[in-house]
Every structure is written in C-alpha cells, then in structure tokens.
C-alpha cells in the first residue's frame, strides 16, 4: 500500500538535515535493544534498563528513529515495549513506524496479551498519531514490473527439478560451487555455498539450525541473490522454524536481496 515508500521518502528528506537519525527494520531494532538490556546489567547496576537503553539510543543512534514492519512476536518483546518506548519518548526520541496491523491488533493471540499490550497501545496513541494507509495498489509489484526483473520466476513449487541449479547458473555464469565464510551475528562465522554475491543454501541450514535475525541480516547484506532450497510445509509444531523463515524473508526484503525460493509443496 506504499507505507514503506512514504516512510523512506520522509527519511531521505529528513536525514539530509538531521545527522543523528536511523532507519531500520523493527526486528533489527529489537535485537539491538536486547543487547543493550543485557549490557545494562553490568554497565549500570541499579538503573532501570529501559532508562539506560533510552540514553544510549539518544547518544549512539539518534533522536529520530524510523522502523519498518513493526510487529510483536514474543512475550519478551511485549513486556519490554511499554517501559522502553515510554523512556524513549521521555528522552525526546521521535518515532516513525510502519506496520501491517493496527495497534490494537498487534501480538494477536500472544501469551498474556491482555496484560502487556493495552498499556503499550495507550502510550503509543498518546505519543504518536496513527494513520491508516489503505490502497489496493501494491507498489512493490509495480516497481518490479517496471524494472524488468519479473521476467524470470523466482519461486518454484514442488521442487521443480533443476530450478535452483538453473538459477545458480544464470546468476553466477555457471561458476563452480565453493564454500565461503562470512561474519554473522555476535562475531560468529558461518559457512555457505557461494560465488560472486550469490549464495545457494537450504531451509534446513537457515531455519532448522539455531540462527538469529542478525545472521540473516549479515547474509542478506553480503549476497545480492539468495537461492533457498527445500522449503517444507509447516504445521503448528514448526512454529520456531516458521518464525525464523519469516525473519529470513524480512531480512532479504530489507536488504533488497533477490530471494529465489524452492518450495516442497504448492504455496497456495
């Protein structure tokens, strides 16, 4: 509907005049916050973590924060948001956020939602103006159509034989597969099959293993084309894998990386 585009236009204009500002995906922001909260225990004992974090954000990040795709997916985040954002707003930080849900619909069906979400929604409405942006136009699809990138399909269903290999050949010019390492989250190094900005990996490797949002952001920042094989049908027992997969897609979208996805079953 154009939410991200409007926010990006705002940020592009504002950042030229306001040096201390940041635009980031909301998942990326929350991982930054969790690291700061953990550091607060050692750096500022006795100080409320939310106040410590808010002061660090003003000093190190900026006083204007633009978040794309705000979502609440865990009880930890839901508990943290009210004291965190109140401390940020009290410190003079201005927040601009996009979301696919209205504030009242965030964390739908979440654990103890009735306890922790209402105070956050009340604070949000007291400090921000909620603007519904409703449109039948998908501007991302229009942009892809104009760019000519939509000529070759990037999704295949029921693991069409040779689809991933065809994309590897197309994207690398037929280069041999080789192992590469890259620096992932928290200083760790991960090994993948890659060449010239193209990586070939699997759902098993990316979503069934213990991976963080920072791992995904690091991968998608390094590689412009990601070929992901073996995406299975997920049920309720695969909620951890489903959340990692969602984070993976968000990271690729945020980094403008091309995601070539091979599904084991029809998407619809």
- The outline comes out as globular
- Percentage beta strand: 15-25%
Structural class: alpha/beta
The main pleated sheet reads as:
6 strands, mixed
Return the average pLDDT rounded to an integer: 89
**What strand line-up does the widest sheet have?**
4-9-8-7-6-5
Order of helices and strands: HEHHEHEHHEHEEEHHEHE
The Rg value, from CA coordinates, equals: 20 Å
Total helical elements = 10
Low confidence ranges: none
Span of the ends, CA to CA:
22 Å
Question: What are the salient characteristics of this protein?
Answer:
alpha/beta, 6-stranded mixed beta sheet, 10 helices, 47% helix
Architecture blueprint of SSEs:
Blueprint: H1 3-15, E1 21-25, H2 26-43, H3 49-61, E2 64-68, H4 75-90, E3 94-97, H5 113-127, H6 139-147, E4 155-156, H7 163-172, E5 178-183, E6 189-195, E7 198-202, H8 203-208, H9 213-222, E8 225-231, H10 239-254, E9 258-263
Parallel strand pairs: 1-2, 2-3, 4-9, 7-8, 8-9
Antiparallel strand pairs: 5-6, 6-7
Helix pairs in contact: 2-3, 3-4, 4-5, 9-10
